[in-house]
Amino acid sequence: MNTAKLQVSMVGTLAAIIGLSTLFFAILLSLLKAMSIYTLALTIVMFNIVQWLIAPYLIDAIYRVKKVSRVEEPQLYDAVERLSQKSGIKTPQLMIARIPIANAFAYGSPLTGNRIAVTNGLLNTLEAEEVEAVIGHELGHLRHRDVQVMMFVSILPALFYYIGYSLIWSTAYTRRDERSNGSALALVGFLSVLLYWVLTLFTLYLSRLREYYADRHSVSTVDEGSRKLSEGLVKIAQATERMRFHHGYMNNLSSLKTLFISDPDSARRDLGELYRTSIWKSDQKLVAEYLSRKVTAADEFAELLSTHPNMVKRLRSLQEAA
Asked: Do the beta carbons of residue 232 and residue 225 sit within 8 Å?
């Protein structure tokens, strides 16, 4: 994996909200003929920027996040402080998300500053050294400014998506005597939506690259980071699927998956492979046998539509980084 490539992060927590609300807003104004296509584009850009600025406050509410002091979590606080210094960045605010899923995420905006959140589920699932490696990964996102980069990368697909559907819907509701240019507008709308899907595939690819890059940052800043993060990722996949199976909890969070260190939607597939390699073995043996698995064409296709790399390929990349 070429770590010199541009790494991108997604502000995924509010993806569904942004999509539905912006689309509704754009269609409504288009039907009312309240704006030109240029005004529509500017509105979409401003709308997404505002969403980015206020996203941390909404994330805190959704995940029941609270700020943690050194007195409450001294070991965790020390790890964040020490690894931030190694990363060459200002120490972010340490947060705890009071949800049972095992995961972690980095987020922030100019209004709030950078933040790193770990969930109660993560602290209850991983060993301290594995939590440290996960923190190293999240600090990598902040070090590479993934959130800011994704802000700009995600605007283009959104523009073409909303403009395309606005043109299609506008044509559908145009009076018959005004439909001389309707077919041309509908074609432009269709091509805009098609371009949106193409750009989305590129965005997903960049999202996977930024996960690899953040993994490598963890390896470079955490002692034995490759081993610790590999074991942590395997345990996160196990815990996530157990949570889905027993409580159905992940059904409410799958649309927010781009925010996490591991994709919740792929946990079932990952866990199936873990069981085939014998889940009861030691952490190191489990990772070693999981690494021996062949990546199939179906795996490659599933990865194409995923925000996170295939687990086997990700573990192999960690081994190479070591």
From this structure: no
Q: How far is CA 85 from CA 65, 115, 136, in A?
A: 24, 15, 11
Looking at the structure of the chain, the number of domains it has is 1
**pLDDT, tens digit, 9 for 90 and up, residues 44-85:** 778 778 888 888 898 898 888 999 888 999 999 999 999 999
211 is catalytic: no
Range of the domain at 178: 15-321
Whether residue 304 lies inside any domain: the answer is yes
Residue 169 lies in a domain: yes
The first and second tokens of residue 110, run together, are: 């100019």
Q: What angle do CA 8, 156, 267 make, to 5 degrees?
A: 45
pLDDT of residue 221: 95
Scored b (16 or more CB within 10 A) or e, 110-130 reads eebebbbbbbebbeebbeebb
CA dihedral 228, 229, 234, 238 (to 10 degrees): 100
Residue 7 within any structural domain of the chain: no
Q: For residues 291 and 311, what is the distance between their CA atoms, to the nearest angstrom?
A: 9
Catalytic option among 73, 81, 127, 138: 138
Between the two ends of the chain, the Cα-to-Cα distance in Å is: 13
CA 150 to each of CA 81, 200, 275, 311: distance values in angstroms, whole numbers, following the listed order: 25, 12, 35, 22
Burial classification of residue 249, based on how many CB atoms lie within 10 Å of its CB (0-12 exposed, 13-18 middle, 19 or more buried): middle
* Six token digits for residue 243: 């949570």
pTM of the model: 0.77
For residue 63, being part of any structural domain is answered with yes
